[in-house]
Specification:
Helix content: 40-55%
Strand order of the largest sheet: 8-7-6-11-10-9
CATH topology of the largest domain: Alpha-Beta Plaits
Shape: elongated
Largest sheet: 6 strands, antiparallel
Structural class: alpha+beta
Number of helices: 16
Number of domains: 3
Radius of gyration: 56 Å
Number of strands: 18
Length: about 550
Amino acid sequence: MAVALFVAYVGLNPAARTTAMRMFSWIALRGRRGRRSGECAELSFSVLADAAPAILWTAQPDGSVDFISDTLYQYTGFTREHAMGWGWSDAVHPDDVAVCKSKWEHSLRAGEPLEVEYRLRGIDGGNRWFLIKGNPVRDQQGRIIKWIGTCIDIEERRHHQQILEQQIKERTEELAEANTRLQEEMWEKDLARQKLDDQNEKMLVDLTARSQRATLLAQMGELLQSCMSNDEVFAAALGFAPKIFPTRRGFIALLNAGRDLAEIAGQWHDCQPLDAFEPSSCWALRTGQPHLVVAGDTTAPCAHAAGVKNTYLCVPILAQGEALGILHFQVIDEDPALVDSELSLKTTFAGQVGLSVANIRLREALRTQSIKDPLTGLYNRRYLEETIEREIRRAVRAEQGLGVLILDLDHFKKFNDTHGHDAGDTVLRETASFLLKSVRAEDIVCRVGGEEFVIILPVADLKVTQARGERIRARLRELTVMHQGRSLGMVTVSVGVAGLPQHGSSAKELLEAADAALYRAKREGRDRVAVAETPLTVEVKLA
């Protein structure tokens, strides 16, 4: 037994060793006293073993445990009967049972000391790490007659060890990562040095190309600002497109007047589009946003580009939020990539075209506002003054006639007084519409104030002008003007007629002659046509 205690002593910590030394001394003194004294020694060993801070245990040569100090029972809640033999293994964590038994069985077969770490399940359900050590006790012939060992709680040590191992692992990983980064940085620097010349050269080429494209785009912008019509705008765009996009094919498609068909305005670099296509077949026209289709992508292809195998881009041409058409770009096999900078440039290109069209529309709208009467839509006095001088010069050069009609609605004040100003406005609008339908395409109809209208008839002699005035007067009587569901009655007009060259050779002379004839028609009873008197006739009357 003293030998067994000595073996156990080896596995104890300093505090446990002190207790064990006292136990060895007491057993040595009592061990010589015979069998009864031996029994007392065994009893005292059990008491001392239970008092030790470690779990002490002994086992038979076959490995079955025949003694465990009470510390194990207090921790696990096992009974002594449950723990004896191999029952102690029920307290071992399921994941550790196989390793624990394997090492214990190896020690039994080889007669070698046992050392293994495993977790024991406590009475509270928790698990703690323990270190078990065991040594064989041999007789004089070297046969194993006993196994004795300790089971020490190493949970705290294990925890600190895990923390230390984790710190070492993290530090090792940090060092490895730093070393990897350093190697990568060195490799990248070497690679960067190798590629620097190529990159600089490529960058220089790209910057030169971008600068050239920007210059061309600026030149196109300046030219577009001077365009006076949409046809000029799109002709300029088609001229600059192959210069700005030398490695891209493309075409411009414009919506027709009915906005139900996109017609090809032109193409560059042998791009072969359809003759025309419906707006709904292009996603850019549907969404009002640029639409990029990468080669092979079947997510949302444009129906009008069904035969295109390469990457393509459709950019809407917008003017004041309204789609006018699209710019269509296709990549070529030699340069199949379409980068973001290209998308920006193409969008800017389309934006400049759209802005130019919007400017033309704005100029036209402002011009229209300045020369059109807002109530009737007819030309106003300002336009009359600009146009009649031009038409007179043209007639004189061509040695052709020019007719002037001045019309004034009869008793117009009665319409306003009887039916209200809204009714009067209706009469004016209906009369204006009637006059536009009653003249030729080249004739110019103007409202010069109140209920007075002027019609310029290019290439019309005095006889034709008078006949036109008579026909207008007669047909106007047949006009039915409805207002708020009721007729406003018959509309009549008095007409003054003048012609070039009989009544003058200037706008002032012709208008004054026609105006004088109008007032004569009024004096003579209204609803009639009066031809201006020639200067010779006026002179005779004055004489």
